[in-house]
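New to this. Please check this fold:
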Amino acid sequence: MALRSPELRWLGTLTRPGRLAPSSLAALASPRRRRRASSPSPSPSPSDSTPSTAPATASAGGVAADGLEGPQWKTVSAKRYGIKESMIPDEAWNVLHRLRSRASTSLLDLMSFDPGYDVYLVGGCVRDLIMKKTPKDFDIITTADLRQVKDTFPGSAVIVGRRFPICHVHDNNSIVEVSSFNTSARGSSVSQIYSAKSQNCSKNDYIRWKNCQRRDFTINGLMFNPYSEKIYDYLGGIEDIKKAKGRILMEMNYMLAYGSAEASLRLLWRFGLLEHLLPFQAAYFSSIRFKRKDKGSNMLLVLFSKLDNFLAPNRPCHNSLWISILAFHEALARQSRDPLIVATFALAFYLGGDMSLAVDIGKSITREHDASFQELLEPQPHQVWNDKRLIAEVQGFAALMKRVLTEMTDEYHVSNAMAKIPQAPSSDVLPELNSVLDDGLCFCSNHCLW
């Protein structure tokens, strides 16, 4: 009877390279996407001065000139998502209060009796608050122009940036970024004029909506007024937060499961996106000094190149397979192994955990390994492996790979991986991607992969 290792039993139900199971996302290979109007016309929405009596109020969706519907405009109570004043740090509150009350030391400002400026938290911090996460920083947008912001904080504010200028306000060893509704990108033709064509919405709504049109992601268009406790969503950002996991998983699956994984990894690394999406793999590229435009190869790229040979747009693999390959390589990158151990592990993987047969076949391999891969140790001359020791080594590697799979979704270990990358980014995508990988690991667990 064949010996089947409990430590490798979780590998058994992964499909063999020649018999890849169709992906559950295969039907999404050619999605029929509903066209979204690029700039829907303003539609009615309650202004700031109108109190909200319901937890959420949705206005009619915008309609563009070609008749296509845009996203619903929404004014949502922050209480719906459990957002409290205590979740906003003192430094951000200080800037908000000063701008709103226009507490400037300027004599001209004090004589103008101006009630102050409108202020909102904007972008990633609003998303994090909605998702019940602690924002790493708080960005503010205001109706004051940047010069007025600087005058409000004499000696502690500086305007930075050329194409998209913002104001850095220094407070208690922290920096709060403040942008202005009145600032347009240089060379931009976008107008902030409240024209007669937008009479069916409030001026405040129109100004907020126009600003959202310039933002890169719908989530970054979310604005939160902490005084009225309202969240303004003009681009469907809240809905996209709900869909973020599935959308990122879908895009990652397109890149790695349909036969173009090697090329996708190269492009992600070249353009600085791999750090945001797969920080462990980016840290590996950085550790081996793999250049952004490097035409050479390495073990990670070779593994996915081999996988690509078995895949095609109409013959994808399941996402659990490419996640497992990422963990397999990361385990080798952490601790190099003898080629025989790696070969026996791979054979046990292919044979569904049949360790006895994997050991017999592994020992019969006479082909030399690729000595250029630092993940593989040079075999010791005249070294003889007995079955018991080889099985123990393979089981130890399987245990390490399982631990790596868990750490790939852990915020602490992800942060450590990013710290190894020079000028590592502070990614807003990581929380969602960690959840995506976690979903993939849950799938593995539910299908008895370990």
